[in-house]
Amino acid sequence: MAQKTVPDSTRRSERSRRAIYDAALALVHETGYAKLTIEAIAARAGVGKQTIYRWWPSKGAVLLDAFLDLADQASAEASEKAGHDVVQTEITDSGDLEADLKHVMRATVDEFNDPKYDAPYRALAAEGLLNPEVGAEFVEKLLEPQLQLFVRRIRKAQEAGHVLPDVDPRIALELWASPLAQRWLMRSGPLTHEYVDKIVEYALYGITRSRP
Amino acid sequence: MAQKTVPDSTRRSERSRRAIYDAALALVHETGYAKLTIEAIAARAGVGKQTIYRWWPSKGAVLLDAFLDLADQASAEASEKAGHDVVQTEITDSGDLEADLKHVMRATVDEFNDPKYDAPYRALAAEGLLNPEVGAEFVEKLLEPQLQLFVRRIRKAQEAGHVLPDVDPRIALELWASPLAQRWLMRSGPLTHEYVDKIVEYALYGITRSRP
């Protein structure tokens, strides 16, 4: 791509935006989401309150964009390490659906247990429950793209004849994705590799002796 | 049981408590959880703010007890209608696990789609994500007792030889309970009888052609 000349005002905006993201993520970690305010984010980022209100309607909207940016950065770092673009990582298709699902679910457990993601992701999920607009954006921009990776992997397994042809992939993936999300969000049980291994096995092969 | 003489002060307390529950449930419905305050609950209930703070540490704690009371009332009404105690309803064991699970899951869908439960339950779930103490109480008093009903039904199915003996019932139930909870909380998909029927079928029989 040709090198573009970036005007000063765009560079200043970009600097402000990054400062606002950093401030929002740091504050939600330090003080918790309930005490997070636009005022505090502005003060920490060294920008005026009006700058934030010009770009975002609520603290939930700021935090959602900050979190999406954090996820983008993690992908960019992974791409640099790998030497190629891994932003749109598909779930590996090794031909062994059980092994591939266990691999990605174990990695997700490790990510959920990482404190860097814990506070903002939990705050966004909570805000999404109470504020339908943030909730819809959370689902559309964050949750659903992750779930669609499973949809595509299940479709490949159906094409290979490993998954029953009448199974609806968008529903089937919830058998393993939702238990992990609920345990993590509600802290209703331990999140371990052994746990997700069992969930994947039960989902693929069922918990009964046989089909009826 | 012998008729007890209830002292006036206990009756007054009971009246205040009920007024506080009613006020909290009405307000969370009308103004939303974010704008709910102890002050507003006290004003609506016609009690002093200090009365509420004497009994509960936070608005989340008030709402949790109000919701548990609402659930108790619903059970009491059901008992009266049925002419016997149904407070501790077990999941029916007709010998057909698929039919019994579909029955209870369809009833849960209907309950989640009832606006009376929607606002307070969603608010409690959100508060539980941000406030670990409310979250732990939510899980212990509300979520886990409901999940244990599935544990006991799965154990019976194991004794009858319908469910594989090495399946962990506390994990297996999440295959159908968590997808329903996540769809409802995140509004990430429609909640219908057809949906829960599929989830139950996939969980019982698996989504692949056969065991490995």
UniProtKB/TrEMBL annotation, chains A, B:
InterPro entries: Homeodomain-like_sf, HTH-type_TetR-like_transc_reg, HTH_TetR, Tet_transcr_reg_TetR-rel_C_sf, TetR_C. Keywords: DNA-binding, Transcription, Transcription regulation. Pfam families: TetR_C_11, TetR_N. GO terms for molecular function: DNA-binding transcription factor activity; transcription cis-regulatory region binding. Residues 37-56 bind DNA. Residues 14-74 form the HTH tetR-type domain. It comes from the Bacteria. This is TetR family transcriptional regulator.
